[in-house]
């Protein structure tokens, strides 16, 4: 049998931590290996327990979830941990900053338990949990804030076709929508996405969206 996904739960509200832990531990393929109430403790526990996924709150004492995420999954981290941000703040600047810090996705705390479990499994599998419609809202709202300060389109190693695909990813298009827009197969789109992530040394589509906007590749 496959070993269960090891989960660390970090939230400063004890009732929410207990609720998450109960929901997660009830699943045969998931296991809560630790709980904590602030970002500093999350970083320390992750170093000792080596979880597969950290479920991370945003606003917490001692060290907030954004900085904790950056320490666990940000650029330059030798052994990054997958972080799923669970927040009460819908598409606000905290969510955007958490994604920039290295989070693999986010959910709202009022999401049903099934979505939390799906989110943990999705992130653990190496995929990003950021629905296309959410991507559109997120980048649309913060496009003015995330305009590039340095490099531009000419600094990217991507081919013209790969740039097309990246721009569509940044527009929140799914693989099926990209395939339809470019009149190519779904498998071809998956190949392009894989190449883009590899060339740009990005972990997932969330990072690709942030990269595109930071580099001014989308209007």
TrEMBL record:
Residues modified as 4-aspartylphosphate: 57
InterPro entries: CheY-like_superfamily (IPR011006), NreC/VraR/RcsB-like_REC (IPR058245), Sig_transdc_resp-reg_C-effctor (IPR016032), Sig_transdc_resp-reg_receiver (IPR001789), Tscrpt_reg_LuxR_C (IPR000792), WalR-like (IPR039420)
Domain Response regulatory: 6-124
Record's keyword terms, sorted: DNA-binding, Phosphoprotein, Transcription, Transcription regulation
Domain HTH luxR-type: start-end pairs: 151-216
Pfam families given in the database record: GerE, Response_reg
Gene Ontology terms, MF aspect: DNA binding
Keyword Nucleus recorded: no
Gene3D superfamilies: 3.40.50.2300
Listed GO biological process terms: phosphorelay signal transduction system; regulation of DNA-templated transcription
PANTHER family tied to this protein: TRANSCRIPTIONAL REGULATORY PROTEIN NARL-RELATED, TWO-COMPONENT RESPONSE REGULATOR
Designated name of the protein: LuxR family two component transcriptional regulator
Highest classification ranks of the organism: Bacteria, Bacillati, Actinomycetota, Actinomycetes, Pseudonocardiales
């Amino acid at each position: 049998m496959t070993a269960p996904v090891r989960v660390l739960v970090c939230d400063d509200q004890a009732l929410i931590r207990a609720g998450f832990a109960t929901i997660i531990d009830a699943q045969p393929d998931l296991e809560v290996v630790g709980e904590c109430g602030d970002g500093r403790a999350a970083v320390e526990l992750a170093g000792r327990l080596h979880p597969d996924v950290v479920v991370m709150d945003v606003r917490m004492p001692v060290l907030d979830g954004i900085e904790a995420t950056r320490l666990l999954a940000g650029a330059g981290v030798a052994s990054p941990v997958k972080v799923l941000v669970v927040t009460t703040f819908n598409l606000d600047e905290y969510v955007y900053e958490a994604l920039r810090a290295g989070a693999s996705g986010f959910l709202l705390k009022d999401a049903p338990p099934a979505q939390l479990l799906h989110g943990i499994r999705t992130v653990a599998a190496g995929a990003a949990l950021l629905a296309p419609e959410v991507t559109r809202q997120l980048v649309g709202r913060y496009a003015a804030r995330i305009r590039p300060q340095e490099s531009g389109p000419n600094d990217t190693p991507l081919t013209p076709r790969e740039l097309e695909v990246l721009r569509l990813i940044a527009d929140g298009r799914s693989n099926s929508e990209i395939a339809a827009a470019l009149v190519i197969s779904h498998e071809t789109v998956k190949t392009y996405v894989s190449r883009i992530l590899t060339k740009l040394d990005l972990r997932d589509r969330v990072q690709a969206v942030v990269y595109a906007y930071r580099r001014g590749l989308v209007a």
